[in-house]
Amino acid sequence: MITSFFRTSKPLHYLIFLVLFFAIFVFQSFYNHNTNQSPISYLTLFGVFLLFLVTFFVYVFVITKNDLTQKNSFAALYLCLFIGILPQFFLAPIVMLSNLFVLLGLRRIFSLKKNINIKKKLFDAGFWIALATIFYPWAILYFVPLFVAILMITSDYFKNTFAVFFGVLSVSLTAFFYVFVLNKDFDIWLKQMPQINLEFSIYYDLITFFPLAILLISSLWGISSLFNKMVFKTSKSRFVYFILFSALVIGLIIPVVSENKSMADFIFLFFPLAIVMANNTEQTHSQWLPSVFILLLFGTAVLKTVLNIHNLLNF
After folding, report:
1. What angle, 0 to 180 degrees and rounded to 10, lies between the N-to-C axes of helices 93-110 and 143-153?
2. Would you state the pLDDT for residue 89?
3. Alpha helices in 182-202 (DSSP H)
């Protein structure tokens, strides 16, 4: 069974993932290729792929450092499959960079369960999420799990909230200094405030509708499983599940409300959803159900690639 192969983490798994990532990236770049691209454009593409690799290894580091899954490769596998069905975020490096900063912020939030250096971790989390918000305004929603964490694990709410405030202030002062030195228009920054757009026509395309439906079903399954864990697990485990739950809900909200909708918005959903699906795979008593779901994701990625190739040849 597929799950048996990935049940114990091995270096071979990550080599497979890297090869698949590279293949997906090359195809997506070729699919959106412009014949007038300059050598600088190719260097930019190379930089985007390096940015993704950094994001991936941060993702793996956050999981292993905070024991968010058992010692297996399920979370990385699900991330790879989600990227396979929605690879468009490779075309949005700014969104990818914001997601990287969100991951760094979530890393500090998850580490709060150890109850060590609380104020430093809160400062760092506020700093990273504020930095992510500069690049992608709706990343501001990730302050919600941060304040949920403060309420769950600390009693000195006032001082700890100030630690977050100073993290945000340090980013804000740096941004305003940048605007002042370069004589930028402050209206540009005001326009970066989160704007709500409830127009969903971009999601009606048949090639993207089926992958989105799978992501939605997976998310609803993940939310229902987290409810049970938030109620019945120990306080330390409950803390992790509350943070995962809030991150998963935010990952669903962002593509719904974002002003300039694109498939890249779903990258914020991939991290919490992959972890939740990995946990469900670990804990299920049936091996065939996760294997069927993994095959469904893989088949969807292959089918989408075939349809894209067909459209490319008919262009």
Report:
1. 0
2. 77
3. 186-190
CA gap 293, 299 in Å, rounded: 10
Using a 10 angstrom Cβ sphere, with 0-12 exposed, 13-18 middle and 19 or more buried, the burial of residue 62 is buried
Identify the pLDDT of residue 33. Answer: 57
- CA-nearest of 142, 134, 66 to 94 is 134
Task: Say if residues 269 and 252 touch (Cβ distance below 8 Å).
Answer: yes
Handedness of CA 220, 222, 224, 226 (dihedral sign): negative
How far is residue 267's CA from residue 133's CA, in Å, rounded to a whole number?
A: 15
> 151: helix, coil or strand?
helix
The mean pLDDT of 9-27, rounded to a whole number, is 87
SS3 183: coil
Domain ranges of the chain: 2-111+199-314
**How are the residues of the chain apportioned to helix, strand and coil, as percentages rounded to the nearest 5?**
80, 0, 20
φ/ψ of 33, rounded to 5, equals: -70, 140
Kindly report the number of other CB atoms within 10 A of residue 33's CB atom: 12
How far apart CA 34 and CA 24 sit, in angstroms, is 18
Closest CA relative to residue 281, chosen from 221, 214, 211: 221
CA distance 214 to 127: 34
How many residues belong to the chain?
Answer: 315
d(CA 52, CA 62): 15
DSSP 200-213: -GGG--HHHHHHHH
Q: Are 148 and 242 in contact (CB under 8 A)?
A: yes
Does the pLDDT of residue 192 top 70, yes or no? no
Residue 96's closest CA among 109, 83, 107, 108?
83
The per-residue b/e assignment along 143-169, b for 16 or more CB within 10 angstroms, e otherwise, is bbbbebbbeebbeeeeebebbbeebbe
